Amino acid sequence: MNPDCIRISADRPDALYRCGETATFAVSLDSAADVAGEALVTLDNFGSAEFERRTVDLAKDCPFTVRGALSEPGFLRLCIRSAGSGRKKVFGVGFEPERIRKASPSPPDFDAFWAEAKAEALSPDPSLPPASLLPPPEEAVRSAPWYRVSNFVAPTKRGRPPATGWVSWPANAAEKSLPLVVRFWDYGMGPQKFPADFDRDVLFVCVHPHGFLPGRDDAFYSAAFAAISNGGHGGAYGFRDAENADPRSCYFRGMVQRALAAVRFAKTLPAWDGEHVTFAGRGQGAFLAVACAALDGDATFLRLSAPWLCGLGLDTSWQPSFQPSLRYFDAVNFAKRVDVPAQIEADLLDTAHSPAGAARLYNALRGPKKLVFRQGEGTEPVATLEAGTVAAALPAATLPAGTAGATGEGPAR
Q: Which residues touch 178 (CB under 8 Å, ≥6 apart)?
């Protein structure tokens, strides 16, 4: 089955409904030649509640419709999966997502816990070298002409991984002239490379979540990831039940501490204008961006995509097995403490970062905010929720003549 030949649409272009209304999904084909064989059709709530399950012969039964409704705020997902290859086509709709507010409650000592963790991460340790910029690999320099590109290492505590990542800024920028954009890495297990889609015309800092030193060989990173992932469900870091039973030993505590150390270092760089700070990230990076906005205090904008760890234990999206201690790491509990403008993008097809989680996060944020839904990452928006006015994240950059500007083009240095 070729999923690209299947067309699914809802009877409302924005795919949003009131609770109790019926959503009608229309399924059709571009070409019957590429969808031979049977397919399983299911309709569920991105969780354990299944409303329809039947087998169809797409070539014979198309077009057909599927109907469903929810009595409470949430999302429905229609999935058409090949009985042979397992390939699938998915389509999602929402029911009053602006009313999805249920989340894991904040522990009573949430603020005290994170004040202690922040102080631990940022207290000077005179036995460690100061944070510093390091020469980058040559391929990073070639990938960003007209820009200064460096690795950075910011020590935290002896015996613990430092904060590490990338820094870039326009080569001709004056001191105190650039807004700061800090982007946090998504979940992953591989060597950090300078991102081709780095933010231009700003002081750009990309934070690696694990504190691994840059520029090492593949064997180093393979061994490092094996060490942090061993014992986690599915071989995934942050998924060790014993580690997560105590919030002080949870892997994500150290990750947030490294993120805070990276942010502190970023704000010491001479090019920062001293005013504008955007925290950005996708998935795990969105979680870190919200956590830093709550704990750092200097954020002026949030730019988030497919946020992760939103409403732990409340749905079946991909996340660690729930334990009460994980409430300290629920992105929604951080969002309750954030009042800066925020823009969020969510995918109505995403099962790892559920759209319900993005809605919970949006509803918890206290400042002007916008949530954009798409039917697949990179597709055109289908619906938008907005509260307040979310202005442009950054001022227009003022750069000297001869600087490349937003194109990033220019002669190799």
A: 169, 170, 201, 202, 203, 271, 272, 273, 397
Range 95-131 burial, b when 16+ CB lie within 10 A, else e: bbbeebeebbebbeebeebbeebbeebeeeeeeeeeb
Angle of CA points 312, 25, 375, to nearest 5°: 50
Q: Which of 382, 386, 377 lies closest to 341, judged by CA? A: 386
Structure tokens at 377: 């990452």
Q: In what order do the strands lie in the sheet containing 23-29? A: 6-10, 23-29, 64-68
In whole numbers, what is the pLDDT of the chain averaged over residues?
88
pLDDT above 60 for 59: yes
Task: Report the b/e string of 40-73 with b at 16+ CB within 10 A.
Answer: ebbbbbbbeeeeeeeebebbeebeeebebebeeb
- In the chain the domains, ranked by start, together with CATH numbers, are 3-95 (2.60.40.1930), 110-407 (3.40.50.1820)
The predicted model scores a pTM of 0.91
